[in-house]
Amino acid sequence: MIFDNTYARLPSRFFQQISPVVVEKPSLIRINTPLAKELELPLPDNQIQLAELFAGNMLLDGMDPIAQAYAGHQFGHFVPKLGDGRAVLLGEILTSKDARFDIQLKGSGPTTFSRGGDGRSPLGPVIREYIVSEAMHALGIPTTRALAMVLTGEKVHRETELPGAILTRIARSFVRVGTFEFFAARQDVDGLKQLTDFVIQRLYPEALDTEIPAATLLALICDSQARLLAKWMSVGFIHGVMNTDNTALSGETIDYGPCAFMDHYDPAQVFSSIDHQGRYAYNQQPLIAQWNLGCLGGCLMPLFHADEDAATDIGETVLATFTPTFAHHYRTAMCAKIGLSKESDDGFAHVKRLLELMHQDHADFTETFRRLSGAVTETSSFAALFSTHPEIEHWLSDWHVLLGREPRSKESIIQSMRATNPAFIPRNHQVEKAIQAAETHGDFSKTHTLITLLDAPFSDQPKYAEYLLPPTPSEQVKQTFCGT
Ligand code: AMP
Ligand code: MG
Fold first, then answer.
1. 257 ligand 1 Cβ < 6 A
2. Which residue from 69, 204, 290, 483 could staple onto 125, CB 3.0 to 4.6 Å apart?
3. Mean pLDDT across 131-159
4. Beta-carbon contacts of residue 268 (< 8 Å; ≥ 6 apart)
5. 388 pLDDT band (50/70/90 cuts)?
6. Which ligand 1 atom sits closest to the C-alpha of 83?
7. Closest residue by CA, ligand 1 atom 14
8. Exposed/middle/buried for 188, CB within 10 Å: 0-12, 13-18, 19+?
């Protein structure tokens, strides 16, 4: 492993060079050892130095910390200057396999982009991001990863005093749609060109030798967003704050502030306390992703063609690919959930009928799909999940007709369904309980348990059976908060 900090070699207006602020008394909560191995990080072998490193008190040779500049549309409104106000990019890791990763501290103190904030993070959001981002990874969904979390030994002041913490996270790149918007808003075409070259080299080298590399880049990003959104939708994930500054060009899920997995199926579900209009509701997410890509397309226009009309045509043609690409991946993923190896109009219509019954019945999204594989051979216990008996019986018998057309055995259908419908997701009420115990008693046992069991979301893990259950009415979490 070496550090090769290419972003820090871009012109100085791309970032602020900054050292993380030293914290008082850091202590390690958890380190993700398999990920550290994959990154080939030369880690100190004692807890004290590990805590110093992941608190930003100590740097590894070759790190060159910066805070990245970006802008963004937040809830549809443009903010020309955001940037890493509470994060520091320590450097770019280059592994012996030529894989490149950004390593970043989140909650490590103020930067020039802090806009009055303290640059710190309370413990709760750090635990939440660690648990949920690693769960997403185990579910096979592209995401930033959590490498470590430490307590700072300092208090942060929100409505009350809370323990402070820092998350170390990893991404293929932290460049966002909002990074392009930063330069476009300043009509800095040189900056846009350099950023485009950077992103192509780093994430989409296949765009290099094409006729209009910037247009190919947009097409590839549309494709990766479409795939990502299909995956979110297929597990009931609600991001909660799909602003353009939270749309990573790598196609990785980023920013776990107010995110949540839905329990009972409701297509209009919203959790975030600040999303008053339901802009980022579950069923709005694909449309919002497309809107965000439109913002990116607008920024790239000057690189498509010197003539504005021609540039607009190019951009619109590329952006129009999002909807059919998303539809293909979404339909494929949803058909797979009911055991169909290929998507089809029949199969997808059948998925939609099930979703309607689930909605009517307040059925739990994860539990319903997980238990469906049992109904390949025996339908009564699955049917008992529903109050609408004749309708679900009817659905099940039509489903068996569809399954009968599958060119594979019942066993292989069951196996594929169990590999696509998770048993375990980071349920909100469990995450909240883990955070509560850590915040109030310094007890991290629930946090560690959740991280462990969510590493194998498709296995039954009988000893964790209680974590399969949807929340009781009194446990139900109705709202989530950004937690900044
Ligand atoms: P985030 O919620 O981390 O995506 O941040 C969105 C914007 O708010 C970024 O410009 C951050 O720099 C800023 N921000 C959020 N929380 C803080 C904080 N505690 N201190 C400073 N800036 C913050
Ligand atoms: Mg953000």
1. yes
2. 483
3. 98
4. 278, 281, 282, 283
5. confident
6. 10
7. 85
8. middle
Q: What does the domain layout of the chain look like in residue ranges?
A: 2-171, 340-418
- Contacts of residue 306, defined as CB under 8 A and 6 or more positions apart, other chains included, come to none
Our separate counts of H helices and E strands in the chain read 16, 12
3-state secondary structure (DSSP) of residue 290: helix
Residues comprising the chain, all counted: 484
* Tokens encoding 452: 């462990």
Residues 413 and 406 sit within 8 Å (Cβ to Cβ): yes
Establish whether 345 is a catalytic residue. no
Mean pLDDT of 430-449: 97
Residues whose Cβ atom is located within 5 A of ion ligand 2 = 246, 255
User: What pLDDT score was predicted for residue 389?
Assistant: 81
For residue 353, give Cα distances in angstroms to 69, 327, 359, 380, 445. 46, 17, 10, 19, 41
Strand (E) or helix (H) holding 153:
strand 145-157
Residue nearest (by alpha carbon) to ligand 1 atom 13: 85
Distance of CA 247 from the midpoint of ligand 2 (Å): 9
125 lines ligand 1 (CB under 6 A): no
CA 245–ligand 1 middle distance (angstroms): 11
Q: CB-based burial of residue 437 (10 Å sphere; 0-12 exposed, 13-18 middle, 19+ buried)? A: middle
Instruction: Give DSSP secondary structure letters for 158-213.
Output: SSSEEEEEEEEEEES---BHHHHHHHHHTT-HHHHHHHHHHHHHHH-GGGTTSSSH
- Ligand 1: does its nearest atom lie under 6 Å from the Cβ of 255? yes
Ligand 1 site, residue 113, Cβ cutoff 6 A:
yes
